[in-house]
Amino acid sequence: MKHLVTWWAGRAGVADRLARGSHAVWDRRAAAFSAWVRAGRRDDLEGWQAAIGPLVRVVILGGLAYAVWAVLRAVPLLMWLVAGWWVCAAWKAGKPAPEPAPEKTSETAHPGVSREAVRDLLLTLMGTDSAVHLSTVLVHLQQRPDTAALTASWEIPDLRARLEALDIPVHPKVKAAGKGPTRGVRRVDLAPAPGAAPETSTAPSTAA
Fold first, then answer.
1. Quick count: other Cβ atoms within 10 Å of Cβ 119?
2. How far is Cα 12 from Cα 7, in angstroms, rounded to an integer?
3. Are 190 and 110 in contact, with CB atoms under 8 Å apart?
4. What are 93-125's pLDDT values in tens digits?
5. Contacts 24+ apart (CB under 8 A), 168-171
6. pLDDT, tens digit, for every residue of 61-81?
7. DSSP label at 98?
8. What is the pTM of this model?
9. Which DSSP category does 113 fall into?
10. Where would I find the beta strands (DSSP E) of 79-156?
């Protein structure tokens, strides 16, 4: 039975988690006690007088440790309570940290599409205007031979999500040629990204 428990603990990572958690619990308690002792030092005093506070606190901790030892020696069954508390604390502290989710960038969300390429497309559609409506952009994409198949099922929310994933702000009410205020992109928000290389390609973007 003992060998079975040992084998199961090893396979399930129980021993590693308890060891890792025990180390974390010990470090936390030691850090808390150390901080409490250091907090006893008085900045308004100098020399040995300033150290009286920490010394007193060390004596208090020593007295508490001796009292706990005496109680456990007198009532050994209490050791099971202490051991149970320690195992629970170690198990909780030893929980593996969740792996961070991969950062979603514009390149991973839309492979092969750069912000600068989409920016150039939006500026082209704006012409001399100060903004462009998402509906205008969507119609343009759905009518172009090279993007019609890709964007045929897109709606305004789909286009908006793709623009925002490329860090291009979409405003709820924008005045532009064609219709009244509705969702769109403003020219002032299309400044080149810091450090971005000048766009040398004039090929139209296939995703927005």
1. 21
2. 9
3. no
4. 877 766 665 554 444 444 456 788 888 888 888
5. 168/115, 168/118, 168/119, 168/122, 170/134, 171/131
6. 999 999 989 998 899 888 898
7. P
8. 0.41
9. -
10. 131-133
